[in-house]
Amino acid sequence: MANISYKDVIHWGSRLFIIAIATFVGCGTIGIWTYESMEIRKEVLDRAKEEVKQAYASEQTVYAPVIMHCVENIAETDTAEKDRKYSHLSPTKLNYMANAKTETLRRSIYKINVYTSSVQVSGSFTVNERMRRLPHSIVMVPIADAKGLTTIPQITLGGQLLNLKHGHDGLQARFTLPDSVKVGDSIAFSYHLNLKGTEDLMFQPFAEETSLTLTSSHQHPSFEGSFLPNQHVENPDGFEASWKVIAMNKNYSDYTMGASFVNPVDPYRQYHRAVSYSLVIILVVFAAFLLVEFLTKKNFSNLQYCVICASIVMFYALLLAFHHLMIFWLAYFLAAAMNVITLTCYSRAILRNRTAYLLGALLTLIYTYTYIMLLMYSYALLTGTLLLFTVLCVIMFITAAPGLPHKESEAIKEDIDAAQESEQTTEEPEKAAEK
How far apart are CA 46 and CA 64, in angstroms? Predict the structure, then answer.
């Protein structure tokens, strides 16, 4: 049995060592470069959103109307004026009916969703003793961002039509209860808001019983807040969702419910997932080059393996750069095609035979399989593991093929031929002596 030569140990040992170092450096470079690039892009995207919010309107939260009562009998100040404090009366029932139409604004290469909404608010208050005793009260409609109001609304309260005016915390109007209203009676209210905003449209369930019906032309909503909708239907024309919230404690005023009109896929989420498979791509590409080197008996130098790793790292740089300007699948196709063509031409210059085209086909298969893994979110780990297992099986099959030419087998054959020749040379003098 022939022993493995010292040169083979040095050759393949150095290859594996260089590949391990190149893989570590390549993955580290991809990770660090991606993190820094994403942080910079995120800052630019946030800045673009702030510009849109300042020029258009920020996120909107539709608050419930409240009735404020001035509390008298407060100690007088040095100026002989009374400090005033207010108590708030929240609605007993509250109903929101909202419709939002979305559009996309562009800031450089970034897309930001904005909306114009039509909100119908109705409900009722229950008259308490303080409200009945005081000569007048103030109804207030808080507004998150007044820039989003396209018209100043009017409110109908207890049969009275009141003009709302800008106040300290939103819109407000003063009113007086009719004499026929008693303590415990319900007074209805209703008003209409035309609001525009950026991305998020939220509602406050500040009532004993709150219902919300939200429709929109946005096809991929992200429901946010403290409550998910009881029912929602999504279709090609948009979606319709409904909520119903019953107050269980006094902290329900801190809760919100609604939808965020963001893009269905984070523009960098797919890129992050592609980066997470960088180790698999590097290992499989190196395995393909090692297999070609083993079959053709033409060695790639350590420097050439480092250049191959640098080409794979450049693939992710190209993918990110193209993804800023086009959809992901097209960016992936262009980056992969450029990388495959470059590596195929590079290996053709080294091997100087048509085996380089087989290597190009293998690289194409690798990048295609990786893209399939990106699409199969739930089964990405399984498909990636199967890819590595398949590569291992192919390597085992090829290296164990009995007809494969090998340096050791050739050396053994030469030793056997030399031994047979020596036996023949010793047998001829003996036969001559016997004659």
Answer: 30
What is the Cα–Cα distance from 318 to 342, expressed in whole angstroms?
A: 13
pLDDT tens digits along 257-307: 888 887 755 556 677 777 877 787 888 888 888 877 777 777 777 788 888
Dmax of the chain from CA atoms?
A: 150
Beta-carbon contacts of 322 under 8 Å, excluding residues fewer than 6 positions away, are 330, 331, 334, 335
Distance CA 139, CA 340 (A): 68
- Provide Rg for the chain, Cα atoms: 38
Contacts 24+ apart (CB under 8 A), 42-49: 44/108, 44/110, 45/110, 48/107, 48/108, 48/110, 48/112, 49/112, 49/198, 49/199
* Identity of the residue numbered 358: L
- Residue 78 has φ and ψ, to the nearest 5°, of -65, -25
Which domains does the chain show, CATH number per domain?
6-42+268-402 (no CATH), 58-260 (2.60.40)
Residue type, 7: K
Q: Please state, in angstroms and rounded to a whole number, the distance separating the CA atoms of residues 188 and 123.
A: 6
Considering the entire predicted model, what is its pTM? Answer: 0.62
Residue range 83-103: mean pLDDT, rounded: 80
